[in-house]
Amino acid sequence: MRVIRGPLDNPQLVAGWCIEKLFLCALRASAVKYPIMRRLYKFFRLPRGERWLLIKAALLLGVIRIGLRLLPFQTLKRLLDSASQPRATDQFSSDRIAWAVTAAGRYVLGDKPCLTQALAVQLLFKRRGYPASLRIGVARKERGELQAHAWVESDDKVVVGGGDLSRYTQLPAFD
Predict the structure, then answer these.
(1) CB count, 10 Å around CB of 46?
(2) pLDDT per residue over 24-33, tens digit each?
(3) What is the pTM of this model?
(4) Whether 124 contacts 83, CB under 8 Å
């Protein structure tokens, strides 16, 4: 016999719990045939706080992407810095924040996501009191073209935008 755990005296909570379980069962059943349903199933299996973090990261990435297209970099950076005052009440680890921005970036950004992701991680880190330093580096390609890359370091560890960073010449940090 299966025991339902939860506040059974509140019918609204029980109904919401049942609807959520039925929704997850329907997603799981259709996930085999449709890849989008597999992604939705994985999303709804996340804890509620992580779902909100993923949604916030996706919205923030979209806003930053639009800001990079419409505003000069220094103006956007100044706006993001003013929004990054520590005030978040949720306490996600720095790894979960970096995961959320990277995961959301795969669906929101498409190509060349490094600067947008780095700015988003820096803002989310600073809002939660984690140290974050935006780094930008440049390198020459084979044909002499300049290539730029952005990443974020926290406590001397690259949290987003890693890879082969040794080929880049670092510009001064954007703290």
Answers:
(1) 14
(2) 666 565 555 6
(3) 0.74
(4) no
Enclosing H/E stretch for 160 = strand 157-160
72-110 per-position pLDDT tens digit: 988 988 888 888 777 766 678 888 899 899 888 887 777
Segments making up each domain of the chain, as ranges = 10-45, 47-170
- Are 61 and 108 in contact by the 8 Å Cβ rule? The answer is yes
Report d(CA 157, CA 135) in Å as an integer.
12
Q: Name the packing angle between helices 114-127 and 94-108 (round to 10°).
A: 150
Q: At what angle do helices 48-70 and 94-108 cross, to 10 degrees?
A: 60
| Surface-to-core class of residue 75, CB atoms within 10 Å of its CB (0-12 exposed, 13-18 middle, 19+ buried) | exposed
- φ, ψ of residue 131 to 5 degrees: the values are -70, 140
Angle 114-127/48-70 helices, nearest 10 degrees? Answer: 130
Give the Cα separation of 82 and 55 in Å (integer): 21
The answer to whether 131 and 125 have CB atoms below 8 angstroms apart is yes
Report how far apart, in Å, the C-alpha atoms of 97 and of each of 15, 24, 51, 52, 159 are: 31, 25, 12, 11, 9
Would you say residue 63 has pLDDT above 70?
yes
